[in-house]
Amino acid sequence: MQDSSGPSHGGASALPQRPHAHAAEDPLAPPPAGAPPPRTSRRRRRAPRALRLGATLLVLVVVLVLGWGAGLALWSDSRIEHVDALSGAENTPGTTYLIAGSDQRDGEAVAADGTEGARTDTIMLLHKAPGGNSYLVSLPRDLLVDIPGHGGYKLNAAYAFGGASLLVETVEQFTGLSVDHYVEVGFDGVAQVVDAVDHVNLCIDQDVDDERSGLTMTEGCHDVGGDQALAFVRARYFDPTADIGRQQRQQEFIGSLMDRVTSPGVLLNPLSQIRLAGAGSGALTTSEGTGIIDVGRMGLTARSAMNSGGTLSIPVENPEFQTRHSGVAIQTDDAEIAAFFAAIGDGSAELAADG
């Protein structure tokens, strides 16, 4: 029987032909019944290996940094001493910090008024107004104020009479601003904090060799360690402006310390962070509920104030007012002080031109 598929050649049977896929397949034809669906040529694009590895490492670093920061914060918080300092006065707008530098001098009189023991040689009010402006104001220790329950005395006597709580109440009464956070730094802690970050850069406009404070500096700017930084914020007897000059140097010190603490050499160095957290938290006393995170926010607010011209001085009526029982004090005008702190409170106080 003849093969109907085509003529035979020489009686030999035809070899089976391999189908030509491109010729035989119709891309528009439906697949045979029961056949699996055709495989598509689309492939899922995968990120390059280096990119995937980099993303994984980035996530790991973020987790480690957050964990490190949280752990360091918890450890630092455990070292801070807390006191019942806030008065519970009605809140005023914004956030207000009262910063005090305490100096424990057992058995030594604070002033001619006879108060003894711990005293505050450095008192500053830091305020972040609702509109965003930040202000740092030094309150001279020799400022004549009315201390609740005691009458007219120098401001630093409030701490000697009643500790942090009476100091807070006195400052609130004087400024009209309620204090949200009280932060006290032991003077000995100043040296430890500076040494933890190696040094701070401080400038002075004259040669100084002051035996009472221990400050020894030549005119100009210098990187100094903890002992000289402590002497720098304490010294006042070499300066004819006395307490006014000292408060300016204290503000300079705070600005220099903030710059150093937030420098890459400290922020990116775990050992420096441990030393700083240990020295700083060990030297701190804060109001109840004020932790290391609040102290960090305070530092950022202080830096903002100093960088924007928000470092201000109170208006003074008489810098050498002779009191009956407290020696020479700084006298102010009630109306001027009320207007000054009202402007700070609402953020309308004029910033310094050199900020």
How would you classify the quaternary structure?
single chain
Largest sheet: 7 strands, mixed
In the CATH scheme, the class would be Alpha Beta
CATH topology: Aminopeptidase
Amino-to-carboxy terminus distance = 111 Å
List keywords for this structure.
355 residues, alpha+beta, disordered N terminus
In short:
It is built from ten helices and 15 strands. It has helices at residues 21-24, 49-79, 157-175, 187-196, 226-234, 243-261, 264-267, 270-282, 292-307, 334-346, and strands at 81-83, 95-109, 116-128, 134-138, 144-147, 151-154, 181-186, 200-204, 208-210, 215-217, 220-224, 284-287, 311-313, 318-322, 328-331.
Q: What's the SSE blueprint?
A:
Blueprint: H1 21-24, H2 49-79, E1 81-83, E2 95-109, E3 116-128, E4 134-138, E5 144-147, E6 151-154, H3 157-175, E7 181-186, H4 187-196, E8 200-204, E9 208-210, E10 215-217, E11 220-224, H5 226-234, H6 243-261, H7 264-267, H8 270-282, E12 284-287, H9 292-307, E13 311-313, E14 318-322, E15 328-331, H10 334-346
Parallel strand pairs: 1-12, 2-7, 4-13
Antiparallel strand pairs: 2-3, 3-4, 5-6, 7-12, 8-11, 9-10, 14-15
Helix pairs in contact: 2-8, 4-5, 4-8, 5-6, 6-9
How would you describe this structure to a colleague?
It is a single chain. The protein has 355 residues and is α+β, with helices and mostly antiparallel strands. It has one domain: LCP protein (Aminopeptidase, 3-Layer(aba) Sandwich). 39% of the residues lie in helices and 23% in strands. The protein has ten helices and 15 strands. The protein has helices at 21-24, 49-79, 157-175, 187-196, 226-234, 243-261, 264-267, 270-282, 292-307, 334-346, and strands at residues 81-83, 95-109, 116-128, 134-138, 144-147, 151-154, 181-186, 200-204, 208-210, 215-217, 220-224, 284-287, 311-313, 318-322, 328-331. The strands form five sheets. A seven-stranded mixed β-sheet has the order 1-12-7-2-3-4-13, with helices on both faces. It has a two-stranded antiparallel sheet with strand order 5-6. A hairpin with a 3-residue loop joins strand 5 (144-147) and strand 6. Helix 4 (187-196) runs antiparallel to helix 8, helix 5 (226-234) packs antiparallel against helix 6 (243-261) and helix 6 packs across helix 9 (292-307). The longest helix has 31 residues, at 49-79.
